[in-house]
Amino acid sequence: MWSNFIVQPDGDDRIGVAGALQGGGLAGIKGGRGQGRRVQKMSDSQEGKIKLAFFVAIIGVTLTVLGMGTEFWVELAQPKNFSGNQTCQMAYYGLWKGCIRTLFVADIDPDRELCGPAELNGVTNCTYFKFFTSGDNAVIFKKTTNKQLNLAAAILALLSLTMMAMGSICIGMSLSKGVPFFLKPASFCFILSGVLVLLSVLIFHQSVLALLSSDDSIPLHYELSWSVACVGSAGGILIFGGCLFILLSLPFSPWEKCFPHKNSVT
Asked: Is the pTM of this model over 0.85?
């Protein structure tokens, strides 16, 4: 009985040790597999570079929103003495609404032949375009807009904002998780948004030319205004920011590949 009593604990101990070893082996295998699937964390310097590139992209987003929300995309000016009285009219419009502004000829620079600029004091009448509601074209100084071109420019601008939002979400997830995995999707979104913004400007310019060619009874001079400058600059900045994210997502530094560091020998 005593021998059985003594042997049994020895067997239990051996089983216990074997079980512990078996469990430890499985844990080691699982740990090794999990270690192989572990995503590489970004360093503090890389995180700082990503934040700097994101700041550049945010500048492009801000300029885009500023340009899209204003109506100073193009200015259409009549000759200041066209009506033969003390006032003249000019127009300016953007993606969503247009304005007719009546100015006093006495307030205009004597050396200027056209009515304007729009910053002078005058009476303004603004209306939203009906492209998105009833589908009607707008009439400005007896000239009719091309709603297909105006709609295309507006839709491309809205799509660019969507891509900017998606790119910002990717960067936020990359910074919060501490992994550079989302940098490539973010770079794609920002580059595509910049291209869409530039396409929107080009199509809008074509819509202005179509408006001017629709009627020749009233002479008009057009000039792209500061809103287009904001949006065009934003497109270039967004593309540049997307390229920065591509460089930051690479496993090596492109600068080291182009300019390898040489140890000086004394």
From this structure: no
